[in-house]
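Retry 2 of 3 after timeout on previous attempt. Resubmitting structure tokens to design endpoint.
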């Protein structure tokens, strides 16, 4: 053999190996799943993904009912490459396109221009992708969205990278002389790095962004419909409270006629916590059966705190031991919830100590991070899933096990959790955290609506009565109205100078239950988020505005631009717009979408497609109603005692309108088999005359309403 031929032969060998490497698959397959929904299988995706371990069934019929619609981008605009065992994905971006979602952020809404590593964690004051629900789903203002269904830490560059062969490149400018020079030049792509040999991507199209979100939510099984009691007022007591302490506290709520539908117990209800036994403490709660049933007699549900780490002092420890990870957390073992046997053992334990004695649900804490308080990424799980994968889905798995357990008893639960991910839209859990910034809490509430999760801006303590009242006002317009007094022992009436206003807002929360319950039914049946970002609302066109930062060369050497965006007002249900105020503010600007809007409290006209500056006073949170808005209200009750209540039906504006009021038994899953009603409330306005009607489907009886009294709010 001549030496000259050697490189050629080596080349041939290399080519042979690169083509025949086992498992190497660089194909991209597209499959249409339903009207406006496509699945892409690119390369060799992991078997485990964000949805694979969950009990969810896409609502294909409801998706198809939305109608067929093409994707606004063509298939070949989504590019894939595989390098070094990783998948590189590129989506196109238009000049004015905006990107929402990609996790539960607390400071920003529009994600264009951001770099994120989507990683389950406790939020740490920076929108960098480390958060409680780092859902890899984005919604584009072009009318489509994409879920990167991979349970790994995913990097996303949302319009930051500039390709040298860009078809639409940014203008090259001279920083020395050109005032329009930009530190972050225009980018025409959204790029994703998946640290795996493939990815499943699910694409959703829509006539507008809300429809994209609806398809996404329906694909995840539809939104959750909480039990009716879940929409009342929740109070969590200090950690060390005993049976007597809780009973005293509940009596005080009753004496003051302050709303209360759920009492939450914190770690010390348990015989041992951090790590946990999930068994009642015999001293503080000597008779848990009686305790829970006494609460039930008062129409108060019991919710219990827990975290995932198992204590060697309890009866569960030995049973679950073979199914736990290599590392402990807070000296407790970490169950591998992805193993069916482990799930069964946990369910049996939870059933025995909680469900069978009437506990209504859990607050599942500390399944998110911080890194120091969790298993490391080198931990080994007996299922063989990596610690990274388990981190991304641990909260989802806990939701699945507990929800299935309640479902087996045909009972709905509603609780709290600190970690979620894609696929958990139908699960009855609301996210919360230890971060306590009121303004950022509202931004998170807005962001939750893009990614199919729920968030509560829970109230804990406050420096002033003004802050206390402002926080109470916003939490009462959220998915879970809760005072979490675990650390401070604060009572709703602790700030006496605003106690009347706090009472009024908690009562308004109770009054709104029929409206909120209907909003949640629309989430479950149609995928419409009950609390929504303004950009999902038709007629709202306040795009985020780029403003140049304060050009101080030392503080801001690259003159980074800042974004002014709408992140402090949101929609609740079909017609309410909520514009909170924060401590220290006496006035604010509200952006009213196109169409007439009216003041919720007075019915007065407020504006149409304009920015209005308001000075509303401390006692009320500004709320506006869309023209034709119909708001059914309960009386200002303190408990939900199973009675039927007369409805006050407030009608706003000058348009004829109708509203499809939802009702069912409020606590079982029978509604899934058709055991529910939609009552049509109609309001006709013609030639100065007003008329109304109530249509109850024949042969059906409402569960919750006794009378229908219309009230015309707008003269
Ligand atoms: C925290 C949780 C708090 C409270 C506390 C009890 O992790 O966020 O709400 O439950 O644990 O130890």
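Retry 2 succeeded. Sequence:
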């Amino acid at each position: 053999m001549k030496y000259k031929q050697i490189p050629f032969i080596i080349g041939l060998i290399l080519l042979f190996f690169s083509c025949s490497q086992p498992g190497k698959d660089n194909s991209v397959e597209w499959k249409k799943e339903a009207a406006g929904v496509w699945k892409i299988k690119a390369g060799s995706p992991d078997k485990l993904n964000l949805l694979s371990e969950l009990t969810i069934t896409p609502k294909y019929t409801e998706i198809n009912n939305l109608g067929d619609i093409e994707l606004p981008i063509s298939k070949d605009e989504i590019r894939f490459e595989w390098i070094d065992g990783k998948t590189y994905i590129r989506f196109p971006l238009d000049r004015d396109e905006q990107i929402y979602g990609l996790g539960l952020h607390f400071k920003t809404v529009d994600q264009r221009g951001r770099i994120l590593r989507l990683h389950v964690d406790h939020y740490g004051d920076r929108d960098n992708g480390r958060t409680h629900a780092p859902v890899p789903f984005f919604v584009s203002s072009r009318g489509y969205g994409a879920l990167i269904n991979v349970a790994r830490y995913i990097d996303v560059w949302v319009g930051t990278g500039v390709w040298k062969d860009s078809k639409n490149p940014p203008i090259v400018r001279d920083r020395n002389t050109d005032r329009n020079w930009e530190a972050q030049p225009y980018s025409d792509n959204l790029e994703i790095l998946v640290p795996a040999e493939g990815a499943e991507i699910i694409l959703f199209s829509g006539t507008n962004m809300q429809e994209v979100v609806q398809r996404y939510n329906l694909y995840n099984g539809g939104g959750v419909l909480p039990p009716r009691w879940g929409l009342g007022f929740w109070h969590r007591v200090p950690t060390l409270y005993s049976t007597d302490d809780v009973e005293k506290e509940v009596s005080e709520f009753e004496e003051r006629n302050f709303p209360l539908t759920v009492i939450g117990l914190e770690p010390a209800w348990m015989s041992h916590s951090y790590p946990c036994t999930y068994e009642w403490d015999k001293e503080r709660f000597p008779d848990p059966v009686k305790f829970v049933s006494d609460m039930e007699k008062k129409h108060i549900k019991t919710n219990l705190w827990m975290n995932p780490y198992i204590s060697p002092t309890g009866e569960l420890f030995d049973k679950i031991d073979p199914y736990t990870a290599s590392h402990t957390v807070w000296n407790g073992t970490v169950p591998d919830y992805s193993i069916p046997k482990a799930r069964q053992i946990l369910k049996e334990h939870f059933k025995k100590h909680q469900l069978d004695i009437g506990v209504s649900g859990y607050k599942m804490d500390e399944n998110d991070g911080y890194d120091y308080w969790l298993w490391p990424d080198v931990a080994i799980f007996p299922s063989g899933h990596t610690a990274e994968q388990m981190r991304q889905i641990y909260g989802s798995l806990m939701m699945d096990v507990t929800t299935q357990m309640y479902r087996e008893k045909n009972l709905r639960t509603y609780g709290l959790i600190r970690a979620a991910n894609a696929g958990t839209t139908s699960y009855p859990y609301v996210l919360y955290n230890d971060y306590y910034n009121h303004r950022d809490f509202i931004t998170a509430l807005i962001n939750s609506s893009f990614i199919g999760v729920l968030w509560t801006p829970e109230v804990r303590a406050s420096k002033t009565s003004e802050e206390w009242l402002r926080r109470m006002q916003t939490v009462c317009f959220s998915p879970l109205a809760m005072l979490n007094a675990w650390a401070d022992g604060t009572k709703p009436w602790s700030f006496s100078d605003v106690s009347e206003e706090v009472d009024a807002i908690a009562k308004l929360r109770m009054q709104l239950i029929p409206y909120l319950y209907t909003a949640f039914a629309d989430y479950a049946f149609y995928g419409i988020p009950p609390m929504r970002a303004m950009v999902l609302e038709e007629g709202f066109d306040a795009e985020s505005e780029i403003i140049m930062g304060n050009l101080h060369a030392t503080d801001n050497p690259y003159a980074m631009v800042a974004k002014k965006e709408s992140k402090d007002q949101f929609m609740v249900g079909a017609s309410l717009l909520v514009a909170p105020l924060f401590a220290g503010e006496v006035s604010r600007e509200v952006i009213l979408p196109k169409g007439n809007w009216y003041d919720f409290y007075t019915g007065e006209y407020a504006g149409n497609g304009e920015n209005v500056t308001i000075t509303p006073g401390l006692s009320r949170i500004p709320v506006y109603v869309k023209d034709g808005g119909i708001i059914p209200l309960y009386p200002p009750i303190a408990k939900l005692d199973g009675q039927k209540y007369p409805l006050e039906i407030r009608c706003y504006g000058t348009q004829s309108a109708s509203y499809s009021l939802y009702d069912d038994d409020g606590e079982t899953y029978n509604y899934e088999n058709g055991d529910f009603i939609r009552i049509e409330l109609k309001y006709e306005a013609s030639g100065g005359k007003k008329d109304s009607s109530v249509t109850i489907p024949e042969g059906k009886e409402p569960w919750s309403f006794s009378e229908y009294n219309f009230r015309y709010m707008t003269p």
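Attempt log closed. The CA atoms of residues 324 and 335 lie 4 Å apart.
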